[in-house]
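To: structure desk
From: M.T.
Subject: fold request, one chain
Message: Could you run this one when you get a chance? Sequence is below, nothing fancy, just the single chain.
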Amino acid sequence: MSNTVYILYSKKLDKHYIGFTENLDVRLDFHLSDSQSRKFTYKSDDWELIFTIECETKHQGLSIEKHIKSMKSRIYIQNLLKYPEMKFKLLEKYK
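Reply: Done. C-alpha cells follow.
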C-alpha cells in the first residue's frame, strides 16, 4: 500500500477534486463508479487523474492534502502541474 495525495479533474464541471488514499486503484474505482450518489464525484462521469504525490506516511499525506485544499486556488493546482519542484517542496515541508 502507498499513501497518495491525488487530484482529479472534470472538464464537464470544470472542477478539481483533491483526496488522499492508501490504495489509489481502489479509490479511483470508487470515484468512477456510479453507485453512490452522495459523493462529490458522482456529479460527473469524466473525472481524470491529473496529479499524484506518493507520501512516506499517512500523516504526511493527510497534511499535504489539507495544505492543497486550504489554498482554495485553481492557480495553485495549475502550478503544481506546471512546476514539479513544488511536489518535492511539499514532501520536504511535511516530512
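Reply (cont.): Strands lie at 3-10, 15-21, 48-55. Let me know if you need anything else for the meeting.
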